[in-house]
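U., I forgot to send this yesterday:
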Amino acid sequence: MKVLNFMIEKYIFHITFAILILILIRFRIIIANSFNIMDHPDNCRKMHLSPIPSVGGLIILPYIFGSLIEMNLASLISTKLLSIWLFLLFVFFSVGLIDDIKHLGAKTKTFLLLILLFLVLPLDQQLLIKALQFQDLSYVIILNQGALFFTIFCIYFFYNALNFSDGANGITSGLCIYWIIALILISGTTNTLYFSILISLFLILMLNLQNKIFIGNSGANFLSILFSLIFIQMFNAKQIFFDQIVLLLFLPSMDLVRIVIERLLNGKSPSKADRNHFHHLLCGVVHSKYVFIPYLIFAIMPYFLKTLYLKSYVIISFSIVAYFIILFFLKNKNA
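Result:
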């Protein structure tokens, strides 16, 4: 009977928030106009034909917050850790929302987020990456006093990688759906948070592919810190290894490194927007409506190869070579 009541409560919880998301989606234009976050085309980087509400972050936030609070009530996450998670999620989301409204400069966003991480992460040792453990290498890299700096670097790197990938419909939400499914398979566990991420992002993805909603900077920021915390939690619980994370995040991470280096070599600011991202180049050979499909296939491939029992360092080396071969082909097609 207890198990049955537990299952009923879970169903009610998810159905309630799914209905809430549908209501928010129904009023997405009113919400976007209220917050002044309609994304208008500029015939340069933003090629959509009419204004689109960038309210994806606003829509998924209540569901994720609700799932975290529910996990706390079920004693699956401590009150202290819950408070830190909610605070980090809210601030990252708020910075993104302000960016959607006011278009903050890159230096301002970087300063705000780095200061936040420096102040908050030391509050709980569970939030720090203290040593790097690999699945296919026998030695461990102890970080000692560098743990805080390395953790902040990883979060900031992932924040930029996810934001850089947010330039074509279906990519950001598709990547996050892929990651959460992969994490469920790797850990062999599920919880309320994972289901809330899957349900909310699937609903957003369906509308995003129809050009009816954008995830927005608020959504990309929110998802970047959410997945950073999930990866750190799983890594510290020894449910995932560092090289596995590298394989999961390979494509957006590799594209970030390549774009930043190219901009610096060309005397441009690393934060200066352009149409040189991997998904932009794919648009030269695939209709923009379907560009998320090959992008996600390329993103999934490195970890898929890992499931064939290949060594991580072999897959990473192969993936780097494959990335630049594909990049060379795409650039020639776009020339």
